[in-house]
Amino acid sequence: MGLDMNDIKLDTSAQQASGEPIVQMRSLNKHFGSLHVLQNIDLEVAQGEVVVVIGASGSGKSTMIRCINGLEEFQSGELRVDGHDLAPHGKASRALQTIRTEVGMVFQQFNLFPHLSVRDNVTLAPMKVRGLARTDAVTIAERLLDRVGIRDQADKYPSQLSGGQQQRVALARALAMEPRLMLFDEPTSALDPEMIGEVLDAMRELAKDGMTMIIVTHEMGFAREVADRVIYIHQGEIVEQGVPEDVFDNPRNERTQNFLARVL
Ligand code: ADP
Ligand code: MG
């Protein structure tokens, strides 16, 4: 596909220079009513690290990563993202607005704007949120669409594209904000099998280019290949984590063993 993510800028802010982890989550607790969805989660993610989160449906994977860009509130604990503190119950904070511009997210459902062309999907946030001039936003959009292999689709509307193409537009759209961190929530789960590879390829290139990524996925082969670290969540708790070889080939926790026996 000729993907080349080389000149996606990874900016060198003070946090990066200091080597401070981009995500610092300490004893984070999250409840939905009486359901204790996240239980004392401790998670640090370093600059440039690729972390893959695995676990059964309903274990809290989405909720955990949605806390990181403030799509979910949490009730207690500490959360610092790229040097900005997110407070418990902190929906409207200034830090949250900043974080949302620095953290990109790709969802299972592509969530493209159906009434906008592919190009306009990608230019919208850079123009509205970052104040880029249209010509500059278009230049960036076309470069990114080229990188994910769909520049020739720029004038089409989302409904005219395959699922794999739509998800690559979603990726280009997130990258157009030059995020410091990318979150992926089962980005290939809604795709027909033959389209999974093209999306994973684009993500693989991004990882190679040094992007910090947290990826929830059931694609275990991909996880093994790209992850610096794999985290296994069970009923709202991180019960095991480590390099892919350790977690996949030598899981120590019985719950991890049972989960992997079902999915591998
Ligand atoms: P996963 O992504 O691992 O499948 P989720 O984070 O989506 O798990 O969900 C964890 C638990 O929280 C599940 O029991 C789910 O039903 C519940 N849950 C998720 N979102 C909500 C919500 N908005 N309101 C109430 N319960 C929720
Ligand atoms: Mg989920």
Features:
23% strand; alpha/beta; 10 strands; disordered N terminus; 4-stranded antiparallel β-sheet; 264 residues; globular; 6-stranded mixed β-sheet; binds magnesium ion; binds adenosine-5'-diphosphate
Can you describe what's shown?
The protein has 264 residues and is α/β, with parallel strands linked by helices. The protein has helices spanning 14-18, 61-68, 94-102, 118-128, 134-147, 163-175, 193-208, 220-226, 244-249, 254-263; strands at residues 23-32, 35-45, 50-54, 76-81, 84-86, 103-106, 181-185, 213-216, 229-234, 237-242. The strands form 2 sheets. The protein has a 6-stranded mixed sheet with strand order 6-7-8-3-9-10, sandwiched between helices. Strands 2-1-4-5 form a 4-stranded antiparallel sheet. Helix 7 (193-208) links the parallel strand 7 (181-185) and strand 8 (213-216). The protein is globular, with a radius of gyration of 18 Å. It binds adenosine-5'-diphosphate (ADP) and magnesium ion (MG). Adenosine-5'-diphosphate is lined by residues 32, 35, 37, 55, 57-63. It holds the Pfam family ABC_tran. Residues 23-260 form the ABC transporter domain. One of its GO terms (cellular component) is plasma membrane. Keywords: Amino-acid transport, ATP-binding, Cell membrane, Membrane, Nucleotide-binding, Transport. It is a peripheral membrane protein.
Point out poorly predicted stretches: 1-15
Mean pLDDT across the residues is 93
Bound molecules: adenosine-5'-diphosphate, magnesium ion
Order of neighbouring strands in the sheet with most strands: 6-7-8-3-9-10
Helix/strand order, N-terminal first: HEEEHEEHEHHHEHEHEEHH
Membrane topology: Peripheral membrane protein
Protein name: ABC transporter
Domain ABC transporter: 23-260
GO cellular component, one term: plasma membrane
